[in-house]
Amino acid sequence: MPEESQKLVKIPSSVTVKKFSDILSLPVSRVITELMKNKIIATINEEIDFETASIIAQDLGFNTEEEIQNSESEIITLEKLIEICKKEKEGDKIIESRSPVVTILGHVDHGKTTLLDTIRKTSVAAKEAGGITQHIRAYQVKKKGQWITFVDTPGHEAFSAMRERGVSIADIAVLVVAADDGVRPQTKEVISYLKEKKIPVIVAINKIDKPEANLMRVKQELADNGIVIEEWGGDVICAEISAKKGLGIDEILENILLVAEVEDFKADFKRDGLSVVLESHLDPQKGPVATVLVKTGNLKVGQDIIAGSSSGRIRKMEDFAGKNLQIAEPSTPVTIMGFGSVPKVNDVLQVVSRKSISQIRSQSNESNSLKTKKNQDLSDDNVKRLKIVMKSDVQGSLEAIEQILSTIKSEEVAVQYVGTGVGNITESDVKIAESAEAVIFGFNVVVTPVAKRLSEGAQVEIKTYNIIYELVEEVKKMLSNLLPVEVIRTDLGILKVLAIFKNGKREMIVGGRVSEGKMIKGENIEIKREGEIVGKGKLSNLQQNKNNTQEVNQGNECGVTFEGGTKIKEGDNLICYREEEKKRKL
Q1: Cα–Cα distances in Å, from 106 out to 156, 164, 245?
Q2: CB 260, CB 171: distance < 8 Å
Q3: What are the DSSP calls for 147-175, one per residue?
C-alpha cells in the first residue's frame, strides 16, 4: 500500500484484541490471524501492548501513533519547588496556614508503620509483604479539629533514596527509635538527613513496654549523634510510646500540633497546584495512577497537568481513604488518574495550559540514552553480565531495586539492564528478553496471558516476587553462578621414587617410599625434579606388599601406577594432591 494512502490510527499503551480490531475497523478474525503470523496467540478479550499492536497495524497497512502523546515544557524540579515554597513564605503575598506534613523515619523494624497504623486505627503493617514497608504511603488524621498529613517511608537499607525524599517533602520528622535496640545504622543516616535539611524533629522512643527497654541508653545514643532532647537540656521534643499498645500516641499528635503552631506552615491557596509525586504505578483498569502530595496551590479535576515526561488531564482525584475530590488543597495527599504514561517518583506535578505542553518525549529519550550508555560501560570482555528486564509495580520499588543491586561490587560479574519499566510483564518485554537472551524479573506485577504463552515458546525465563529482598537474593544467586569456580588444592603427601618397574607410553609403574603425609589412590600427582615441577598426572593404582590398597602412610614403601605423559626418573618426588571446585558467592 503506498505510504500516502495509509490511514493513521491512534493506539493506547494497552488494548484488547477486540478494541484493537474496532480501531482498525477490521474483523477480529483478521487481526487474530495477523497476530498468529507473528507467533502471538491472543484471544478476543486479552490485551496486547502498543508495540505489538503497532507492528500488527503496520503489517495491515496502517500508520500508528500512541493515543496520548507526551510533550515538553519547562519542568520544575523538587529542589526548585522547595525554593518556591520557601519564597512564598518569605514574600509579601497573602498566604494561609496549611496542615503540617509529617514523615515517620527510623531503622527497619523499630515500629514506624505500626505507629502510623495505631494512629489510623487500621492494619497496614500486616498487609506489607514480609512485614516491611516497601512503598512510600501518605495518609491524613484529625486531631483537635486540625488535619495532620503523614508520609510513611521504608526503613531498610535498600530504600535510602526513598527516605531522603521523605525528608525533603516533610515539615516535621518523627524519628522512631526502639527502646530495646537503640540508635541503628538507618537511624544515624536519617539523623544526618534531618540535620542537613534543618527539619524540626520529634523523637518517639517506641517499645517502652518491652522488658529489655533501656530508655537512658537510647537517650544517650541520640545525644551522641547530635539529637539532644528537652529533658537533657536540648530543644528536641521526646515522647515515650508503645505503638503496639497505643501508649503515648496522643502525646505524639499534640507535640506535632505544637511544633506546627510554632513553625506556622503556610502556602498560597489561590495559585495553581504544585505537587510532588510520591508513588506511581500502572493499573490494568485505571491506567497510569500517581499518588501526589500538594505542596502549594490547588489541584482541580479537569486541569491539564505535567510531571516530568508524563502529561495528561486530571480525570479523577481520590483522597487517602478513596473518597472522590474535586479540589485538593496544600498538604493534601491525593491519588490522580488521567496521565498518559506513568510519571516518575520525585517528579513535580504542575498545572499547565495545553499549548505549553510540547515535545517532552525528547527528554524521555535522553534519559533512555543515558541508561543505554550506562549499560555500554559493562562491555569489558572480562566481565560476565547477567542481562535482565526489570518490571515493577511502582517507580519507587524500581528505584529501590536498582539502588540495592548497584551496591553489589564485583570485577568479574555485573547486572546489565536490557529494559526497565513500571507495569505488568507484556509480550514486548518477552521479545526484548528473547533478543537479548535476558531473564525477566517482576516485582509485585503479573505476567499477561499472552506474554506467558510467548515466553514458554521462546524459552524466556520469568521470575516474579512480592518481597524485594527475595528478588535481590535471586539476582545475587544468578550472578554468583556466573563467577568462575574456586579451585581449592590440598597437598596429601610426597613419595620419593626409588625404582622404575614399567615404562609405558602413557602409564608407568614406579616404586618408592612415602616421605611425607600419605599417597591416596585416584588423586592427582605432580612430578618434582631438582626443585621444579616437570609434569602432572593421575595416581591410578596403589600397591603395598603386592596388594592393592587405597592409601599408604608416611614411612612405608609402595608401588604407584602413574598415568600421564611425563616420564618419571629415579630420585624424583611425586607430590600427591587433591583439587576441589567450590562455588563462589558475592
Answers
A1: 9, 12, 19
A2: yes
A3: EEEEEE---SGGGHHHHHHHHHH-SEEEE
* Helices of type H across 271-394: 361-376
**d(Cα 544, Cα 557) in Å, to the nearest integer?**
7
Burial category of 482 from C-beta neighbours within 10 Å (exposed 0-12, middle 13-18, buried 19 and up): middle
CB neighbours (10 Å) of residue 385? Answer: 17
The pLDDT assigned to 489 comes to 94
What pLDDT is attached to residue 120? 73
Instruction: Give the relative orientation of helices 50-59 and 17-24 as an angle to the nearest 10 degrees.
Output: 40
For the residues of 477-523, what is the DSSP string, one character each? HHHHHHSPPEEEEEEEEEEEEEEEEEE-SSEEEEEEEEEEEEEETT-
- Among 325, 336, 421, 433, which Cα is nearest to 371's? 421
Residue 290, all three cell numbers: 500517581
**Burial state string for 403-413 with b = 16 or more CB within 10 A and e = fewer than 16:** ebbeeeeeeeb
Query: E strand or H helix at 192, and its extent?
Result: helix 185-197
Query: What gap in Å lies between CA 122 and CA 135, rounded to an integer?
Result: 17
Residues with Cβ within 8 Å of 504's Cβ and at least 6 positions away in sequence, in order, are none
Q: Residue 392 has which C-alpha cell?
A: 515493577
The domains of the chain, with CATH numbers, are 3-66 (no CATH), 99-264 (3.40.50.300), 274-360 (2.40.30.10), 377-482 (3.40.50.10050), 486-582 (2.40.30.10)
Q: Global pTM?
A: 0.56
pLDDT, position 438 = 95
Beta strands in 169-285 (DSSP E): 172-178, 201-206, 237-240, 266-267, 274-283
Dihedral angle computed from the Cα positions of residues 477, 481, 487 and 490, in that order, rounded to the nearest 10 degrees: 40
Side chain identity at residue 240, one-letter code: E
Burial of 278 per CB tally in 10 Å (0-12, 13-18, 19+): buried
**DSSP 8-state secondary structure symbol assigned to residue 568:** P
Measured distance CA(580)–CA(586) in Å, rounded: 19
Span 334-382, pLDDT tens digits: 999 998 888 887 788 998 866 555 544 444 444 433 343 344 444 556 7
CA 121 – CA 513 distance, rounded (Å) = 82
**Hey, which bits of 87-161 come out as E strands?**
96-97, 101-106, 137-143, 146-152
Which residues of the chain are modeled with pLDDT < 50? 1-4, 68-73, 122-136, 155-159, 162-163, 359-378
